Please model this.
Amino acid sequence: MATAISLRAQTACLSALYGAQRYDELIRLVDSARFSWWHYRRWGVDALMAQGRPAEALRYAQASQASNASLGAVAKACETILLQSGMIDEAYARYAIIANEGTTHLATF
Model:
């Protein structure tokens, strides 16, 4: 299925699967993609969260660091997962600085 979808149509397809709550299909499609791009893997994170599986979503996001994702983008997703799970201290300790890093120290703090 992944090879039949052009790169231009993939975002629209993932959005449609998410909107239709076809989360398992969405994750299979993202996982079967030829290249592992954070932009697409982010949909998998969102699908796992929508299914009420935050621990799996966190692991899925952390595994995305090996893709072309910026550390800040993955850290922001991980921080959000932990915050939504009520794990405020862990979110701060593990991801707050990287997730909210700015171009200067003043912008960061």
The chain has a mean pLDDT of 86.
